[in-house]
Write a structure and sequence with these properties.
Helix content is 37%, strand content 24%. By secondary structure, the protein is of the alpha+beta class. It binds guanosine-5'-triphosphate and zinc ion. The site of zinc ion has 6 residues, from loops. Homopolymer.
């Protein structure tokens, strides 16, 4: 097997068909793309490029091959029923329209449920990585992170804010480098209670550029 097995992203990566990264097929596709661009994939500088690019894509799309339930499988009880917020989680993803990067930061917060079910702080950053390392749109990335937390931790509330720059809007097309897009996904108490939401927004607002 050339790749790692994973669950189908169409079902949020939790269940479904298993698939693998096909290194040889990716190499052939990159070689074909170079030919289509009028390049010579056999010249010295490009000889190893298809294999290199294929390996890079396997790494950059690693989130396709990991089940989010694994990331949040370890939880523990801690009697804390108030906001837990990790800000400024660096995030690199790929816009699925152009396969160009969009990158920025994610802010992820939740209010544990009355049983105090919490997860390790690093798991929030791992969850961001898992959903970012796929062909994505920023809105879906944001809501997938929020919904995974809702499913796995059954928290009283969740807030996810992603602020990113899309290179497809900077280095080509409309050419607006430096423009940033902010998306949010808010669930449960953080959506329904104005005071809970205000507290979280206030903390996150200071982190936005
Ligand atoms: N909503 C949303 N749009 C995105 C995201 N990433 C890229 N896009 C947009 O996807 C759209 C694709 O538009 P198309 O008209 O199909 O493609 P295009 O001709 O290359 O568009 P231009 O980028 O305007 O040149 C563009 O407007 C992009 O800015 C994203 O994460 N969310
Ligand atoms: Zn794009």
């Amino acid at each position: 097997m050339t790749g790692t097995e994973h669950a189908d992203p169409a079902t949020n990566g939790e269940v479904g068909a298993r698939r693998v990264f096909d290194q040889k097929r990716a190499e052939a596709a990159v070689r074909e793309l170079l030919l289509a661009c009028g390049e010579d994939p056999d010249r010295e500088g490009l000889r190893d490029t298809p294999a290199r690019v294929a390996r890079a894509y396997r790494e950059l799309f690693a989130g396709l091959y990991t089940d989010p339930s694994e990331v949040l499988s370890k939880t523990f009880d801690e009697s804390h029923e108030e906001l837990v917020l990790v800000t400024d989680i660096p995030m690199f993803s790929f816009c699925e329209h152009h396969l160009l990067p969009f990158h920025g930061v994610a802010h992820v917060g939740y209010i544990p449920n009355e049983h105090g079910r919490v997860t390790g702080l690093s798991k929030l950053a791992r969850l961001v990585d898992l959903y970012a390392k796929r062909p994505q749109v920023q809105e879906r990335l944001t809501s997938q992170i929020a919904d995974a937390l809702v499913r796995r931790l059954e928290p009283r509330g969740v807030i996810v804010v992603v602020e990113a720059e899309h290179l497809c809007m900077g280095m080509r097309g409309v050419r607006k480098p430096g423009s940033r897009t902010t998306t949010s996904a808010v669930r449960g108490l953080l959506r329904s209670s104005a005071s809970s939401r205000a507290e979280a927004i206030e903390l996150i607002k200071g982190r936005l550029r």
